[in-house]
């Protein structure tokens, strides 16, 4: 997580939103549906239908990379699903499904007179694949065997790996010391390799516990602990 995705411990960032509705505007439901359909039909899935017009890999990692690539000052201007819309739009343009000019033209027509006509229906096979994916998801658990480097009660220091595109390591945990309280059963991979950040291939995952004063110092809430599930690539022995 880059700065705009990891605000833990930062001061003067404004009031915290207490909005409880998953969808605030009707159009947000459509964006969520588009994203789920793209993940359901991603070409990395072994059981996807054949002969689809959509022939790309799209995962949560791709969606997050699109958001994290935004300038932090731009990031805070947009609503949650507006960031999704920007990431999806940039992806379908980069993959050649539509040009930026065509997207701009369709958006203008939408604003002038409502939504454009739907080109056609996907069919029962595609609908079934989407419903199946929404029910069972796409497990990151791997069959690769690897001996865990750490065990329960080990003291570990969290690395501060260089981030280029995307990371799963919260910024407020970097360089902090915690205790391993659980070791995952098996190994887990990530949807794509993150370069110097270090994840991608299958590896053990650990639940690490942090005392509040290690993270927040005097500003922390007394008798509070923070637990985080972290890939092995993010852990070092605490000296």
Automatic annotation (TrEMBL):
Residues 140-236 form the Nitrile hydratase beta subunit domain. Keywords: Lyase. Residues 1-114 form the Nitrile hydratase beta subunit-like N-terminal domain. The keyword Protein biosynthesis does not apply. Pfam families: NHase_beta_C, NHase_beta_N. Coiled coil: none annotated. InterPro entries: CN_hydtase_beta-like_N, CN_hydtase_beta_C, CN_hydtase_beta_dom_C, Elect_transpt_acc-like_dom_sf, Nitrile_hydratase_bsu. Its EC number is 4.2.1.84. It catalyses: an aliphatic primary amide = an aliphatic nitrile + H2O. The keyword Lyase applies. It comes from the Bacteria. Belongs to the nitrile hydratase subunit beta family. NCBIfam families: nitrile_beta. NHase catalyzes the hydration of various nitrile compounds to the corresponding amides. This is nitrile hydratase. It comes from Marinobacter psychrophilus. The lineage of its organism: Bacteria, Pseudomonadati, Pseudomonadota, Gammaproteobacteria, Pseudomonadales.
């Amino acid at each position: 997580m880059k700065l705009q995705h990891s605000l833990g411990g930062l001061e003067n960032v404004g009031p915290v939103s207490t909005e409880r509705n998953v969808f605030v505007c009707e159009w947000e439901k459509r964006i969520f549906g588009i994203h789920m359909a793209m993940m359901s039909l991603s070409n990395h899935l072994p059981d996807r239908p054949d002969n689809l017009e959509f022939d790309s890999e799209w995962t949560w990692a791709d969606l997050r990379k699109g958001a994290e690539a935004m300038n932090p000052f731009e990031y805070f201007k947009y609503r949650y699903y507006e960031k999704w819309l920007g990431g999806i739009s940039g992806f379908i343009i980069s993959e050649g499904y539509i040009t930026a000019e065509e997207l701009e033209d369709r958006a203008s027509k939408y604003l002038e007179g409502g939504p454009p006509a739907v080109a056609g229906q996907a069919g029962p096979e595609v609908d079934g694949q989407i419903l199946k994916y929404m029910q069972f998801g796409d497990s990151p658990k791997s069959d690769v065997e690897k001996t865990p480097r750490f065990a329960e009660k080990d003291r570990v220091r969290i690395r501060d790996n260089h981030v280029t595109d995307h990371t799963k390591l919260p910024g407020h945990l970097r360089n902090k010391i915690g205790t391993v309280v659980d070791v995952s059963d098996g190994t887990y991979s990530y949807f794509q390799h993150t370069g110097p950040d270090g994840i991608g291939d299958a590896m053990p995952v650990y639940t690490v516990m942090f005392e509040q004063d290690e993270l927040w110092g005097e500003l922390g809430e007394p008798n509070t602990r923070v637990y985080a599930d972290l890939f092995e690539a993010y852990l070092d022995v605490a000296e």
